[in-house]
Amino acid sequence: MSGRILIIDDEPHNLNILRIFLNSLHYEIFTVEDGTEAQAMVKEVMPDLILLDVMMPEITGFEICKSLIAEPDFDTPIIFLSANAQKEDILQGLRLGAVDYLTKPFDLDVLERKVEIALHQKAKIKNLKKDNKQLAKLVYVDALTGLYNRAYLDITIRMISEGTKKFQAAMMVDMDYFKDINDNFGHLVGDQVLREVAAIIQSKVSSDHDLAFRYGGDEYLVLLHNEANCVEIANSIIKDVDSLKVSLAPNKMQEFSVSIGLTNNFDPTCFEQIITQADAALLGAKNSGRHQIKIR
Description:
Blueprint: E1 4-8, H1 12-24, E2 28-32, H2 38-45, E3 49-53, H3 61-69, E4 78-82, H4 87-95, E5 100-103, H5 108-140, H6 150-162, E6 169-175, H7 178-185, H8 187-204, E7 211-216, E8 219-224, H9 230-243, E9 245-249, E10 252-255, E11 258-263, H10 271-287, E12 293-295
Parallel strand pairs: 1-2, 1-3, 3-4, 4-5, 11-12
Antiparallel strand pairs: 6-8, 6-11, 7-8, 9-10
């Protein structure tokens, strides 16, 4: 098994023994003797496992462990190595969040097995996190367009009301005459158009700050972090959809368009009102001849 192991110990003799032994098992080894540099070293190395001495000057292994565990994204297993075999010390180390506690002098065969188990568990957790991300994508992303779906919109609304997500404008984008597209060219063409328009919308908004949803059918909702350029984004979407051409048969292309309703009256305490205003603006665009932007 491969893995990156960081050894934190102020005794050079112990470090050398561990480094030589674990190197022989084909692990990638990093060492640090100064406990005050441990946290910086952890961030630099990003190890899969930490072997941590308890008794060190200036800062103890227990204090280092407590500080590391307090980091929100820290998930590296820690094994304490200590000459202190008192039951209370062992329990304290485990209570702090270490996966194991080995007393010195330790048996190298036992250490090998403990390291193997800890790295195996780390790999399992990593795979589970990867699987969870994939599942979240399936749950919260619309399968056809790749945009967020209504389930994730519900979560977003809650985050907006709690103040953890902030937006300044909302945009409703709706295909013009989409029923005619399905009726005249079939649902496969309609689906292709929906995907193409979704890709255009996604390319126009900030992936870091804005969110785009398939709101329903041929309608999209975009939440914009900054209202200053919302009209520019809307115009850019209309322009790119105007340029969208889908091949229906040899030498036959079809053009498409969208209407957009905008609101920058964004009250985080009443999301229904935001949707109502964006919908009303969209309806105004439709009633005025489609293929345009209305702001409310």
